[in-house]
């Protein structure tokens, strides 16, 4: 029985691939990242390895390079199976590292199994072919960095597109609200619905009419009591609840995300009532989810780059990747969050860096590039090259920059 090692960080994808192989007669070992894969392979040598590319700790490219440097492992054929890295340059780099196949997801199960069988039949009992020319450490790192940088550019473009879609969605949402009234609800102090506008038929997609809900409890309007409790708490604290997230449970059990605004009023007879409006925000939530997914994918890529990446909002560091922290001599990126960006250059270079930032924000200049001296955590000075531009981060204007350590280059020169 052939033994296949699969490397995939997403549990659902990993389980599906393992199931496909097992039902087709393979023995399977699974790992969640490159480091786990190396340890698993050294404990129990597989007949082939199938690896994703984008993974935490050690990605697929770094795993393949380490695989080919191990005398016991390099004879085992290495297959890439990725949905993220799909450019021809990605495949060329993978084959240069020593991979024998580069499969792009999604691929039909029959095609995947046919490729795997072909690899096993061709290289069983003999070493997998070596790449035409073994990449040295510097070349490998440079190519790896270039592949990651290209993917980062792709993700940044996707993020900007998602943000544009979110803005367009909000504009459409506003136009819709201008033409369609919100659902108006009036309830007694004990939570009995006394009045409701006919627009509930639109919100519920025809499953409810106002007559169906008048006389019932307002709890009918919420997926669970927690939403109503949070709205009442906001009213107690601030006098009213404004645009609070909630979920409407429809008659068939389906859930509709809503925005709720509410307050308590005293009627002419002295009775207290709660008046509220409900607004369908399904489209807004879908757009927010898309933007969040793009941002998450982008961050995974940034974490793996061999150059320092940072985001500064209002001149404070809001994010930096591990390489940025390492360049400045910090143990982790968390130590730098909140730090004033202008505390990094040495005193003589602060004004020049500040001027570059001012031009970016006040004059809306294009990308900037500047070399300056920086203070590391231990007080030593290094030479850095900064490249950056104005972008949006979590809805705020921000400066996104990339830094490289020039000290080594200058010493070499």
Would you spell out the secondary-structure blueprint of this structure?
Blueprint lengths: L2 E5 L3 H13 L3 E5 L2 H10 L4 E4 L8 H9 L9 E5 L5 H10 L3 E4 L4 H15 L13 H43 L3 E6 L4 E4 L3 H4 L6 H4 L11 H14 L1 E10 L5 E12 L5 E9 L1 H23 L3 E6 L2 E5 L1 H6 L19 H16 L5 E8 L5 E13 L2 E10 L1 H6 L1
Major β-sheet annotation: 5 strands, parallel
Mean pLDDT: 83
What shape does the CA trace take? flat
From the N-terminal CA to the C-terminal CA, the straight-line distance is 56 Å
For this entry, give a set of tags.
Beta-Lactamase, 413 residues, alpha/beta, Rossmann fold, five-stranded antiparallel beta sheet, 3 domains, 13 helices, 42% helix, five-stranded parallel beta sheet, flat
Could you describe the 3D structure shown?
With 413 residues, this protein is of the alpha/beta class. The protein has three domains: 3-135, Rossmann fold, CATH 3.40.50.2300; 180-285, Beta-Lactamase (2-Layer Sandwich), CATH 3.30.450; 307-412, Beta-Lactamase (2-Layer Sandwich). It is 42% helix and 26% strand. It is built from 13 helices and 15 strands. The strands form three sheets. Strands 2-1-3-4-5 form a five-stranded parallel sheet, sandwiched between helices. Helix 6 packs antiparallel against helix 10. The chain is flat.
